């Protein structure tokens, strides 16, 4: 059985992540855009079903749930941001 030492070098994937890191505001903006897209997809499926398109019921329900979960996650992120801002305002200098 061959015993190999632990590799302590940083993998190229990690270096790539560090090089392409973006700000929190950029990530938040991407997340909000993604949530909006999920909401629009659910709305488009609803409109298609109302117009008589042959879309399976389970697909419609899955899209609605994805949109709902995404929106609930966005609300929780917003709540945490507001809570953090309020905590910072309460800090004494």
From TrEMBL:
Belongs to the FliE family. It is found in: Bacterial flagellum basal body. It comes from Thermocrinis ruber. GO terms for cellular component: bacterial-type flagellum basal body. This is Flagellar hook-basal body complex protein FliE. HAMAP family: FliE. Keywords: Bacterial flagellum, Cell projection, Cilium, Flagellum. The keyword Translocase does not apply. GO terms for molecular function: cytoskeletal motor activity; structural molecule activity. It holds the Pfam family FliE. The keyword Translocase does not apply. It comes from the Bacteria. GO terms for biological process: bacterial-type flagellum-dependent cell motility.
């Amino acid at each position: 059985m061959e015993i190999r030492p632990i590799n302590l070098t940083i993998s190229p994937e990690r270096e790539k992540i560090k090089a392409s890191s973006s700000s929190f505001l950029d990530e938040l903006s991407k997340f909000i855009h993604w949530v909006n897209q999920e909401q629009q997809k659910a709305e488009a499926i609803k409109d298609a079903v109302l117009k008589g398109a042959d879309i399976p019921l389970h697909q419609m329900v899955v899209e609605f749930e994805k949109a709902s979960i995404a929106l609930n996650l966005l609300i929780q992120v917003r709540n945490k941001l507001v809570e953090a801002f309020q905590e910072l305002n309460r800090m004494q200098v």
